């Protein structure tokens, strides 16, 4: 039912989108409790890794702690795949994980899946994609961090345009990164995933999924809010989310910055593509982020009093307020 209200807003590209987005958040914060069913607190945790919001840092912290965790949808975290063996930790990452071969390809391929033995799953996928792997979302606690859309956009653009940090001085011509104006991005297919009659994507391969649609953070969260137990925080509260994960796995998870390469042409890109030309593509994301920030930076829902009690205790240590929907 939440999805039914979400999709029309994600398609809007007008000055009314921000207003309607705020109405959508009001709907979320006042009516979501009708979808939840009371029950015991789940003992497994799913971290929905929205791109460029700190999920890699959480995943690396889990790997360094050798925690019972798996990953799905991302190749930059040295954990074994939750499902299948196509995504694994290359041997080159192993030396950064306490010098062991725990997450080598050979070790990961000893099992067809690692989800059943993991307490935590870090997944860089949209909620509908995740639900194909986790068939009973109510049996998990769901966490995610979001980011102010302007900051998110330029961080994501710099990451893609620098070939994901490998060439910080590069211009990937085919992706539109060298465009003189917003029109160049639109001509390349940014923000609008087009498909052929056969259902094949018409967007060039070198335009990453970050920019296949507008309002990426809201679109990926999707039915995240319909799960009984969830917590959504601004990226500035990421260590709190890591501490929640740490309490689940019983190991400290101090965060370190990952994916820190900076595209050296970013300042010029910002001048050519100012936020004022882009903002209408992120009206729903802006409304969602504003709602979370008005709630103190963290917003959650729980069917068990144990979750708010545990989280509030952790939040006090960080001088953070968590708002709980009733």
In short:
The protein is an alpha/beta fold. The protein has 14 helices and 7 strands.
Describe it.
With 326 residues, this protein is of the alpha/beta class. It is built from 14 helices and seven strands. It has a seven-stranded mixed sheet with strand order 2-3-1-4-5-6-7, sandwiched between helices. The N terminus is likely disordered.
What is the strand and helix layout of this fold?
Elements: H1 2-10, H2 16-31, E1 45-48, H3 55-64, E2 69-72, H4 91-94, H5 105-108, E3 120-123, H6 127-130, E4 141-146, H7 149-161, H8 182-188, H9 216-221, E5 230-234, H10 238-249, H11 266-272, H12 275-278, H13 283-294, E6 297-301, H14 306-317, E7 321-325
Parallel strand pairs: 1-3, 1-4, 2-3, 4-5, 6-7
Antiparallel strand pairs: 5-6
Number of helices: 14
Topology order in helix (H) and strand (E) letters: HHEHEHHEHEHHHEHHHHEHE
Structural class computed from helices and strand pairing: alpha/beta
Record field, number of beta strands:
7
The end-to-end distance, rounded to whole angstroms, is 18 Å
Mean pLDDT: 78
Quaternary organization = single chain
In percent, how much strand structure appears in the residues?
Answer: 5-15%
**Helix content bin:** 25-40%
Rounded to the nearest angstrom, the radius of gyration is 20 Å
| Apparent shape | globular
- Main sheet summary: 7 strands, mixed
Q: Which blocks of ≥5 consecutive residues have pLDDT under 50?
A: 1-16, 25-39, 85-101, 195-201
Spatial arrangement of strands, main beta sheet: 2-3-1-4-5-6-7
């Amino acid at each position: 039912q939440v999805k039914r209200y979400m999709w029309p807003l994600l398609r809007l590209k007008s000055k009314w989108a921000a207003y309607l987005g705020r109405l959508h958040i009001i709907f979320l914060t006042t009516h979501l409790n009708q979808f939840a069913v009371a029950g015991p607190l789940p003992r497994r945790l799913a971290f929905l890794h929205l791109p460029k919001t700190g999920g890699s840092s959480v995943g690396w912290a889990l790997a360094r702690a050798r925690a019972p965790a798996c990953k799905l949808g991302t190749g930059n975290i040295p954990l074994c795949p939750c499902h299948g063996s196509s995504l694994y930790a290359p041997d080159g990452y192993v030396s950064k994980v306490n010098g062991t071969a725990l997450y080598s390809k050979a070790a990961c391929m000893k099992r067809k899946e690692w989800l059943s033995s993991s307490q935590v799953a870090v997944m860089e996928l949209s909620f509908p994609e995740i639900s194909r792997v986790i068939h009973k979302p109510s049996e998990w606690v769901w966490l995610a961090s979001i980011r102010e859309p302007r900051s998110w956009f330029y961080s994501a653009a710099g990451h893609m345009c620098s070939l994901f940090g490998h060439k910080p001085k590069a211009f990937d011509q085919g992706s539109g990164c060298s465009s003189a104006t917003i029109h160049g991005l639109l001509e390349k297919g940014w923000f609008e995933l087009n498909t052929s009659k056969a259902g094949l994507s018409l967007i060039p391969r070198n335009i990453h999924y970050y920019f296949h649609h507008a309002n990426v953070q809201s679109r990926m969260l999707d039915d995240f809010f319909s799960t009984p137990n969830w917590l959504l925080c601004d990226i500035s509260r990421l260590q709190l989310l890591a501490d929640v994960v740490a309490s689940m796995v019983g190991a400290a998870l101090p965060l370190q910055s990952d994916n820190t390469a900076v595209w050296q042409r970013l300042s010029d890109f910002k001048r050519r593509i100012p936020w004022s030309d882009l903002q209408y593509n992120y009206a729903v994301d802006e409304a969602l982020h504003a709602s979370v920030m008005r709630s103190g930076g963290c917003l959650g829902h729980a069917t068990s009093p144990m979750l708010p009690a545990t989280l509030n205790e952790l939040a006090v240590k960080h001088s953070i307020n968590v708002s709980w929907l009733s």
